[in-house]
């Protein structure tokens, strides 16, 4: 019941609104009550409102406002990418992305696969 | 300005178990079980150390919500003392002339009050859930209300008190009442309020008697003897708390 994911330096969050939608970022500093300074391996460090962030369970060990190289090294050590992709939330997002990027032929193939699964479960 | 986090912790004694789920606190102890719903508050209730401590948090709270933290803890403390020691409220009857007649009915859960200020009306008060009432044997004109939930016991005492209000009279003069004498939660005790009221009633009665004497003397100076005797006989029947006006009307006939 109490809160488990806190806004802290090193907390990994997902951007859920705006230009960087869907990007995993690390909270690197807190600007004020509403905004954080946020950084990721492939973006320029910027400030973002907390309302645009969804906190995840992942946390890395960094000091306040680290250099980009330090940040990258810390993310490697904490293995953020793998942890994210193996978490149920991360897996769901990957599936959603895949589904959104299907073309018509792919969707046809998916339909056939679904029918096959249903038939095999009935016949067994 | 919103404070990011404000929290307070309280200790829970050994013989009590506390459960918290969705802002509903249940306290269980030797005397029974009490629940209280804190859903109207925006607070975070958390049991720490396997139930030995209760922590109450307010996240991004305004002044109001932060004030509610301490009150929530006080309410839980009242639940705990209710469930370990219980609450006892004592009330005394205060009257100048007409003895307040109280009978406990319904296996100690209701009280009927008669002869308040000589009125024919019978006042019946039902005690709330879990509250018992008895007349104290040792002390004259005393009621004892017992229960686990302080809110219910104190409310029952207030209900009795309110039934015995004097209407359409000068309440400084007509001091009859059934007053809360004090309450005990375990050993604590405060008993000055009704003692003062009792004293006051007695003082007024004495003063009134002297006033009557004075007026009788005045009357005897101005009236023939027969009428003075009449005055004396009527005053003997008169009660101090009801008749000051009538006396004046007699004098100025």
The CATH topology of the largest domain in chain B comes to Outer Surface Protein A, domain 3
How far apart are the termini of chain B? 73 Å
Subunit arrangement of the protein: heterodimer
Characterize the main sheet of chain B: 4 strands, antiparallel
Number of extended strands of chain B? 13
Physical arrangement of strands within the biggest beta sheet of chain B: 11-12-7-13
CATH class of the largest domain in chain B: Alpha Beta
Q: What structural category do the secondary elements of chain A indicate?
A: alpha+beta
Unreliable parts of chain B = 186-194, 219-253
- Number of helical elements of chain B: 5
Structural class of chain B: alpha+beta
GO molecular function (chain A): mRNA binding; structural constituent of ribosome
Pfam families (chain A): Ribosomal_L14e
Family (chain A): Belongs to the eukaryotic ribosomal protein eL14 family.
Keywords (chain A): Ribonucleoprotein, Ribosomal protein
Brief rundown of the structure:
The complex is a heterodimer of chains A (124) and B (253). In chain A, 41% of the residues lie in helices and 23% in strands.
Molecular structure report:
The complex is a heterodimer of chains A (124) and B (253). Helices cover 41% and strands 23% of the residues of chain A. Chain A is of the alpha+beta class and 124 residues long. Chain A has a 5-stranded antiparallel β-sheet with strand order 4-3-2-1-5, with helices on one face. The mean pLDDT of chain A is 93. With 253 residues, chain B is α+β, with helices and mostly antiparallel strands. Chain B folds into 3 domains: 3-84, Ribosomal protein L6 (Outer Surface Protein A, domain 3, Alpha-Beta Complex), CATH 3.90.930.12; 87-189, Outer Surface Protein A, domain 3, CATH 3.90.930.12; 198-249, no CATH class. Chain B has 5 helices and 13 strands. The longest helix of chain B is centred in the C-terminal third of the chain and has 30 residues, at 193-222. Residues 186-194 and 219-253 of chain B have low confidence and may be disordered. The A-B interface holds A 1-3, 33 and B 2, 4, 20-22, 44-46, 57, 59.
